[in-house]
Design goal:
- With about 120 residues, the protein is mostly beta strands.
- Helices cover about 0% and strands about 55% of the residues.
- It contains no helices and eleven strands.
- The strands form two sheets. Strands 2, 4, 5, 6, 9, 10 and 11 form a seven-stranded mixed sheet that branches. Strands 1-3-8-7 form a four-stranded antiparallel sheet, with no helix packed on it.
- Strand 7 and strand 8 form a beta hairpin.
Length: about 120
C-alpha cells in the first residue's frame, strides 16, 4: 500500500502565500513524476504543476510565475509554493505520484486525499 498525505492548506487573503506539502509512504521502490492537481467547486480536476524525477518542471498557464513545485527525493515528498494567490485559486489541491512498489511492478499513479485552499478576504 502507498499513501500520499497532503498538508498546508487553509484560508489566505488575496495576494498571500501558502506552501503545500505531500509525503508518500508505504511500499515504495521508486517514484517517477510527482505533481499537483486541483479541483474547484463545480469544475473538473485540472493540472497545476508536475515535476519529473529529473528534468524540467511543467506548470499550468494560470499559475506560471506564481507557483513553484519542488521535491525532496530523500523524503519522497513534493511541495507547492503558492504566491500572489487569487480567489480563483480556491480549490481542493491533490498531490499525485507515479510509484513503483517493487522492481517487477509498473509505475502506478497514486493520489492523496486532498487539501482545501481558500483564497478570500
Amino acid at each position: 500500500q502507498v499513501q500520499l498525505v497532503e498538508s498546508g492548506g487553509g484560508l489566505v487573503q488575496p495576494g498571500g502565500s501558502l506552501r503545500l506539502s505531500c509525503a508518500a509512504s508505504g511500499s515504495i521502490f521508486s517514484i517517477n513524476a510527482m505533481g499537483w492537481y486541483r479541483q474547484a467547486p463545480d469544475k473538473q480536476r485540472e493540472l497545476v504543476a508536475t515535476i519529473p524525477s529529473s528534468g524540467s518542471t511543467n506548470y499550468a498557464d494560470s499559475v506560471k510565475g506564481r507557483f513553484t513545485i519542488s521535491r525532496d527525493n530523500t523524503k519522497n515528498a513534493v511541495y507547492l509554493q503558492m504566491n500572489s494567490l487569487k480567489p480563483e485559486d480556491t480549490a481542493v489541491y491533490y498531490c499525485t505520484a507515479d510509484v513503483k512498489a517493487n522492481w517487477g511492478r509498473p509505475y502506478l499513479q497514486r493520489w492523496g486525499q486532498g487539501t482545501l485552499v481558500t483564497v478570500s478576504s
